[in-house]
Amino acid sequence: MSAPAIAYRQDRTPALEAIRALYAAAPLRRPIHDPARIRRMFEGSNVVISAYDGERLVGLLRGWTDFAFDGYVCDLAVHPAYQKAGVGRALLDRALALGEGVQWVLLASPIAKDYYAHVGWEKVENGWKLSRDGWNPGSMEAYQAQHAELAAKA
């Protein structure tokens, strides 16, 4: 299969239902059962880079940066049919190009933790986190089973 012709956009946030379907398919465990929360996640982000194959949303990076010193990648979601096609790397490269001298960090999903070393990111040992209250997605298997119908729409 030849590499798909992917179009990348930074000018608008994708449709909410397309985001939810991509998160379900990726699978990136996000609160897709709560569309209002997903909407707030994007309203509060100043970096949204999307990848399209035609009209189909196939990749998405969401994050924050001050465009001068610090940046944080909140989400990197790539549809399984487009993984290993360079979509994730292209999304990351576009984020890196947003500001010279910005140091980007992220908290990797357990299923993607090895990917970031593969694309040149350095593992950090000096990070800390305070777990969120409320929603707990459970196991990956349960999450995928619960959202299989939505994932099929991606």
TrEMBL record:
Residues 6-145 form the N-acetyltransferase domain. InterPro entries: Acetyltransferase_Butenolide, Acyl_CoA_acyltransferase, GNAT_dom. Pfam families: Acetyltransf_10. It comes from the Bacteria. This is N-acetyltransferase domain-containing protein. The lineage of its organism: Bacteria, Pseudomonadati, Acidobacteriota, Holophagae, Holophagales.
